[in-house]
Amino acid sequence: MSLPNIIKKHTYADYLTWPENGRWELINGLPYDMTPAPSTEHQRISRELVLQFARYLAGKTCEVFYSPFDVRLPLTQENDEEIETVVQPDLAIICDRSKLDKRGCKGAPDLIIEIISPATAKKDMQEKFLVYERSGVKEYWLVFPSDRVIDVYALNENNKYERTGLYQYPDKIKVGILTDLDIDLGLVFSKD
Fold first, then answer.
1. Which of 31, 73, 86, 163 lies in the 20 to 30 Å Cα band around 102?
2. How far apart are alpha carbons 4 and 13 in whole angstroms?
3. Digits of tens for pLDDT over the chain (192 positions)?
4. CA separation (Å) from 31 to 3, 36, 99, 113, 146?
5. What residues form DSSP beta bridges with 150?
6. Cβ–Cβ contacts within 10 Å for residue 2, how many?
7. Residue 143: which domain range?
């Protein structure tokens, strides 16, 4: 197993050969190292979001998954080995179970949440934003821990992201793809 060449374009076939002790993403063929590990604050926010979604989704069709979990985003119908975008979102809600396999998810999740850190901000707000939009992720949340804010985007009728809300502690977010679920930011951003 060898580390990826960061200036060469890669595919999922290359990605599968990289050492398992590292965490990588592949966006439009370019590798991104996902170290260092997430902060304590990041982990607390992620845990609370997972708990709220998991409680609601128990016994329902949709499922919540959290990093590390590979989401392969093909451009068309290419084989797995040819895919050039593999991401590990902080959270992904997937309602179409046919997209799930032993390697993770192949195709666009219904909702993706990324928790922004200084090291990932540009990638999450620019590269991933465009990739998720192009791939058809219906709803995309950007979580800003230090500001205790979540910026929510949803695909419009032209398949472009449109901001549907900017929420802050202690608001509740009505989930666009799950209209009878509210996420409690008082709990998400709790310091306790």
1. 31
2. 12
3. 455 566 678 999 999 988 877 788 999 999 988 877 788 999 999 999 999 999 999 999 999 999 999 999 999 888 889 999 999 999 999 999 999 999 999 999 999 999 999 888 999 999 999 999 999 999 999 999 999 999 999 999 999 999 999 999 999 999 999 999 999 999 999 875
4. 10, 15, 23, 20, 27
5. 143, 167
6. 8
7. 36-188
Q: Within 75-184, where are the H helices?
A: 121-122, 128-135
The pTM assigned to this predicted structure is: 0.94
Scanning the chain, the segments in alpha helix (DSSP H) are 12-15, 40-57, 121-122, 128-135, 185-188
Rounded Cα distance between 128 and 158, Å, is 19
Asked if 5 contacts 65 with a C-beta cutoff of 8 angstroms, the reply is no
Domain of residue 114, CATH code: 3.90.1570.10
CB count, 10 Å around CB of 10? 19
The span from the CA of 69 to the CA of 20, in Å, is: 13
Domain count, the chain: 1
Determine contact, residues 182/172, Cβ cutoff 8 Å: yes
The Cα 148–Cα 92 span in angstroms is 20
75 phi, psi to nearest 5 deg: -75, -40
Residue 176 lies in a domain: yes
